[in-house]
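Re: export button greyed out
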Amino acid sequence: DIQMTQSPSTLSASVGDRVTITCRASQTISDWLAWYQQKPGKAPRLLIYRASSLESGVPSRFSGSGSGTEFTLTISSLQPDDLASYYCQQYKNYPRTFGQGTKVEIK
Amino acid sequence: EVQLVESGGGLIQPGGSLRLSCAASGFIVSSNYMSWVRQAPGEGLEWVSVIYSGGDTYYADSVKGRFTISRDNSKNTLYLQMNTLRAGDTAVYYCARHRSGEIDYWGQGTLVTVSS
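Workaround output, generated via the alternate export path:
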């Protein structure tokens, strides 16, 4: 199975800060990676697919990059609405696997 | 508008069975591949199972042999039959639609609690 490791597990930042979350795959997955946002008590929402493509309707402050085994999700200017957990997921192989999540808190 | 509405969750004793349903609207279930993803209380997301438009299915090792994914094309509904339930299966179960590999729509989830 492909293991997905996210860091950090939790981060606290101020409104307007640039925030970066890292996701590492245990083997190469090319760009078969998605990022999801999950707000408390809600279902996840797709933010980024194919590692760097922004889903329609998602604010442009979100961006994704990387390929192979190293990926990042960046929020260019953190907003109060970005309070959530963020998950990466690989979709190169079965079983599909998610990172353990990164909880973003607002200072 | 695409909508996915899960039902069938509840409290069940260990060893019991439960069938989850996911009623879809705004698209044809059999034309997309569909997954179930679960989330234990306070934990992260875990992919459970997928069914392709051609009928091929895959399962996580943790549920293989106990869970069965299926669909009813006439009802445009996805199912997850869960047998021999364990405490570790306690979770919110989400129905999800894949656009390509990524999941572009999620249901609101249904809670399954396995406890005596």
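The interface with chain B takes residues 32, 34, 36, 38, 43-46, 49-50, 55, 87, 89, 91-92, 94-101 of chain A (CB under 8 Å). The button fix ships in the next patch.
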